Records
---
Amino acid sequence: MQTKVAAKPIEILLVEDSEGDVGLIEEVFEEAKIRNNLHVVEDGEEAILFLRGEKQFSGISRPDIILLDLNLPKKDGREVLEEIKEDDELKNIPVVVLTTSKAEEDILKSYNLHANAYVTKPVDFDQFIRVIKSIEDFWLEVVKLPSK
Amino acid sequence: METRMTSKPVDILLVEDNKGDVGLIEEVFESSKVRNKLYVVEDGEEAVLFLLRKGQFSDAPRPGIILLDLNLPKKDGREVLGEIKEDKDLKNIPVVVLTTSRAEEDVLESYNRHANAYITKPVDFDQFIKVIKSIENFWLEVVNLS
């Protein structure tokens, strides 16, 4: 893999309300070859505050990539996706939808809203880990992320 | 990896004018666990005709994913990207930009135009193959395509 000589770690925003899933995802990203910081918010409202650097998130750096669950408390992930992709400052941040939903309409709607990728979370533990590792491999080691 | 239970193969459109790169990419996708068919066009005009199913491409399938070089003859890949992502029927097809360009402005502009991912082609042969395999793994085995 091309060694990425990054001056700064990659900032990842994980929008996920399942604590179990958060724990597993944190473990995978902790072991990544590429330095990264994983920030976690648990609902759609906090996701927006984080992205706008508002309230308790003022001063926070803009994430380089977002992992977004769809079914979230307070503000649905589908709305969050739409807001991100309609915002001129935020729309170039890659958003990987990571959700339990396999519904064709969710998949189609997410891509129509310009989600960068749609991934259904496997139920099986080993497959879940593999999927997170694939996400880490592709988005941290292979892809060029937009610079801020 | 979750087995994709597709009744049909995944159709991939590769827009690439470098024959050497085409050959390598074809080999990787031929060895994929997931059934797929790789269609190749060599310039931006043919890419658009293929997607609109015009001319010699009237029977072309709608691809599940597009791999798009930026520097193309006849019509630039940046224009092709813009046209795809502004078309209400085509915009939901993932477009992975795969180009020699490392220019920050190309990266930023591509994402602003809703490219799904931007990848700079490695010069090193082994790394090139690894990158294509990562693309194959992520987009054919992990992701849900629309």
---
Amino acid sequence: MFIDIKKISFKYKNAKIDTLKNINFGIEKGEILSILGESGGGKSTILRIIAGLETPSEGSLVIDNRILFDRNTFILPEKRGVGMVFQDYALFPHMTVEENIMFGLRNFSKKEKEIRVKEMLQLVNLQDFARRYPHELSGGQQQRVAIARALAPKPSVLLLDEPFSNLDAHLKSKIREELKVILNRTGMTAIFVTHDKEDVKSIADKVVVLENGIIADIGITSKILK
Amino acid sequence: MRFKNIRQKVNSWGILSFIFTLLVVLPCIFILLHLLDKPNENWYHIKNYLLKDYIIDTFKVVSFTGIFTMTIGITLAWLIAAYEFPFRKFFKWALILPLTIPPYIAAYTYNGIFNYTGIVQRFFREVIKITPDPKAFDIMSTKGAIFIFSAFLFPYVYMISRSFLEKQSAALIENARLLGRSSSSIFIRVILPISRGAIVGGTSLAILEVLNDFGVVSYFGVQTFTTAIFNAWFSMGDSSTAVKLASMLMFTVFLVLMSEKWMRGRKKYSYTTAKVRDIVPIKLKGIKAVGAFFYCLTILSIGFIIPLLQLISWSALTYKAILNIKLIGLTFNSIWLAAISAFFIIIISIVISNFCRMNSNWISKIFSKISILGYSIPGAVIAIGVILLMISIDRNMVWLYKAIDPNSKTLVLSTSIFMLTFAYIIRFLAIGYQSIESGFDKIGIRFFEASRTLGYGVTKSFFKVDLPMIKPALISGFALVFVDIVKELLLTLILRPFNFNTLATKTYEYAGDEKIHEAAIPALIIILVSMVVVYLLYEIGDKEKR
């Protein structure tokens, strides 16, 4: 398995019950996995654990044969090489589109940076918007910038937190298609969280159904969501 | 597992936060240690003959100032928030201006207006040709102190209540209007209850200012705890008695804070819905509009226009003698001292609040509580704690001083400007901390997390992402602290190095030497600096709203 999650449990401070209980699943390289469930069911917490923004109470996490978390290890988020697209995008408001995308390219040379930013802008089809600030973009454009920013440093996996929840209904299917194209073109391994079965059907290879912090069902999308 | 968790949490931010909060607490600890000193004769003398007066005077000043600031503040807030009348927009911000005149300057000015040679009695003698009883105009009393505090501290209640009413009350007030309630009944049945938290919050700020004040009460000869502490320390040279009085003052402050908590009640009167409309003011007509206008004008005149005009006219009399290189030196002293202290306060505030927002646990809660502790501790208490601490450090460090410079004095820290800066930091850290904290609250943690997933550590993320985003909070925090330090009197007076003067101490000195006219120019500079800052903050606040 490219990503291997074993026996992860998680409890928020001051909470009485576990948000996540004994979570186990794996993903092969290049696969797109969706975590489906009601809001408040702990879906986003799984992404935050993979990104290193939360520390589980037990379990282990391995990506590409590298232990990111277990009993004795905790790799800091900045050292994980995991890209994340936040639900509200979290684009830095004081930086232009270009600067946002360039932000994660700290170990690139100046020339490499320019090339990579150009590639990314092309990938998300925003070549003409490089100098704009986030608040000058539409919701869909902001999301594409967020995706480009997360993909730019070539992460091993891309995490997307409710990627379609902030978009108008009539835009949804168009943006789904766009995301599918982007992910396919890059061959990226990706995990996305959603509460909408349609999202899963149109993009995901595999789905994990989460109910009250435990995995209720897991498998190939076409089999789980008939 | 345990070790892993600790390593994750302890970083340079945590260590620095710990050191800074420790520095803030140390002087308090020194006061507590000296509290156990054996009482001496002075203490018994004070306890038997004077303590009752201190308590009564302090209580009188605090409670009446509380009542008056509350009344003036909430009525103005209600008028401005709910009604439209001539010059309302002007009054809306102008009514903050009394805060730019430090109460001690107001005290000298009003004494100058009302004393035998002042404009009021001269008017009676020279224009109306009657000589009134000078006692009728004597404001150097407890009543005078209450007048000064109320006229110049009410903006605390006004500002907090007004912004609360504007933001929170639209639906409630409109409903009450639809239900056919009259204005006065809405005020009593709806406005007062819902704005209780804001009123109590503002009033307790004013009361803390009163307990902290030294300038007004010492000039008017009112015997409060602050003057008593000052006298015990300087007239009697008795630190142990001063410490005992200081701890009683601290206890009073504690009572004020507790009753604030209790009076705010359990209910939080704020909306849970995200969409809060601004209240739409009703247009007043005829006599009502004139009445509202004159009410605002009277308060503004007493709290700002009259003393300002008086100071300007005095400075016209004295500017030839005062405007010189010495005055520039004083201004320079005030400004660099305030700037350096404010700079340190902002740095410390950033470190602690950044640590606290990333680690919400009991340690960060304690750090954050301690950071805002200093503002409720009266200056006199902080001064004593800081002196005790610095002298004790000096005593233990003599060997080091001698090693560096064989001719060194034995008291180094406690005679340097460092001691004063340190005290400022303790006293005003709360102001810087709260504005930085609210700046962090506004941007949230998401941007920081995004930066972490893009490969930057805690510190790099802070400089690249958080710092540029909290810039407005940095500027307003710095400005607020800066202006408070320029105005500050008591700490500066007690802790300054020998022969070191600022605008505030010089104003106090002139006024104390019966040179009220000469005090006008340094006082005006202080007021001018405050006005500039108030204007800047008002602009920033307005911009953020838009």
